[in-house]
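Note to self: user wants both folds in one dump. Writing first protein now.
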Amino acid sequence: MKLKLLKVVEEVYGDSYYRLKKETRQAIDMMCWLSSERGFFFAKDDYLADRHDISDRTIRNVAKKLREHGVLFTMYRRSTKQNGRSAPVHLFVDHPYFSYWEELLNLSDFQAENAEIPCGSKGEESKKVSTYSLPLKKSFNKYVRKEEPVLDESFTPSHIPKSFILAVKPFFGQAKEIYKLWGKAMLAYRIARLDTPLEELTEVVVQAFKESIFSHKHRRIKGSFHAYFFGTLRNMMVIEKRREITNNHPMFAQFKECLES
């Protein structure tokens, strides 16, 4: 599993991965090793930095890049010593247990820390803090399934729009793959913080998938298809957010009234 996670990270960096410092690659390797069993790691930035003789800023930059490509989902535990946040917990989205954590922790109600601004105020940071503590191993193992049968698209969860399933099915026929791709869409949607329900943006998601397939067929994707799809959709969601802000602005409403009058 460690090698699988490491491969996903390498695909994000592409050819530049092996141009990273040896110590940085060793730190990434350790992140994947720590996450191999349960799908997450909570080692502090300074711990990883000191262990591999690099700066903690380098560790933060690695985590930020992986978040931006939909590989990591970062949340925080509540500090027991003060009224604030403790060390971050990084979950690998491509780990088989991520869907378990997503359901258990109800991650759809939390905002991923994808737009971290180091110099931001504490008030702004608190809006992005998730305060769940991870469960103990005993309760975790109860849900683990060692073997899963291969399921076709007819087993895809009902909350995933039919139009998305129909678009994806010719290229990814398994329910697991369709669910994984829709998970990328949900993550991009949460990052954009749109007011419009995701179900009403299905056409945008489908268009992002089609553009990603086009790029794949023309060999424009150097890394992971899933990461490329996530990046494409995230950019499209940003455009939708800008459009949403513009449409809700009072000046725009007044301008629209003038045109209609």
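First done. Writing the second protein, which came from a different request thread.
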Amino acid sequence: MALLCAGFAAGQEQEPQTGFTADVNLVLLHVAVIDPRGSDVPPLSVEDFTVFDDGVKQTVELFVAPADAPLDVALVLDSSASMKPVEMLARRAALSFLGRLAPDDCAFVLPFSDTAGPGRWGRSADPDLRMYIGGIRSQGGTALHDALLEGLAQLERASANDLVAVASEAEEGLTSEEREESGIGLDSGPPVQTSGPDKVVASGDNPVITLPPRRTSLLNEVGDAVRYLDLSAPPPITGCGEPLPPGTLTTAANARRKALVLLSDGADMDSKAGFYDALGAARAASVPVFPVALGYANDDPSLKDHLEEIARATGGRMVQNGKPGELGESYDQVVSLLRSYYLIGYSPDRLGSPEQTPSGGRPRWHDVTVALRRPNFEPLVRPGYYR
């Protein structure tokens, strides 16, 4: 299975900051370094990181510090009718978020209600992008899963089908033990009321999230459903979001960090794709996801668990927003984390030939651990990947 690591833009003219070079078979990790005490973390070097893949120490082939690689970020914004009371605050907070990005950073703004998009690429100071945010209006339902799939697809320069296919192929290659360890295809939480696959039904004033049945193949169940997604974002005029030319290498000279910020205030009611489709695609991508929960999203246990699970699976972090007026502060927390992300790449030493792998060459789950030489700091990284 080819690793979906095409989230790097060509045309960067800066010189590499290290002597590292890499090929397209790299496993790419976004590793944030945080101080639990809240203090600033000084710049770190490659010697401060040790990467383990299935318990085996790896040789780092790509190391890019936060200051040396621009950011591609998808800002996925709930614009359903329930957001109407905080519509203006949400727009102002989104514009403030853009203003905190660096000039070389790129943003893909994707509003969603009962459908996802269309979205628009641009830079923080792009007047067209800022006008686009100013024109977002709240109406309709909530297609959260579809929006997450489209945001990931844009960042990976792939299609939603590609991401779901990777997750499906990986799931089919998992043993029962690996499936349980990775959590894929497993229902979580208490039994819930159902009204059809992956839908939400009203129960008094409280909508009830229905989980999909245990899955044996993501692709078989949702391959057709995700084809409707509109990936026809307006052509970029700023160099952001452009497809990669064939043969582009993941080197320090052209590396770009990636992240997805998801704002929502409620449960998914309208997606064609289900929660496990979104979770599988998030695992298949190399993109940290930062859900920002607003209002009802903080109060519903099932929805909160879903958002937290997506964040954990991708090496991101969920930010709970207590009041609409604090949304700007929530975005500030996300920006601070984004500024602490290092990009690390390695070729797993245990892969060997397909005949030598325990799964016979089929994708399997790999546990990933990152240790820091400085004990006062903590790494934030995805727990593993399929390969």
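Dump finished. Worth passing along: Residues 68-338 form a domain with the Rossmann fold fold (CATH 3.40.50.410).
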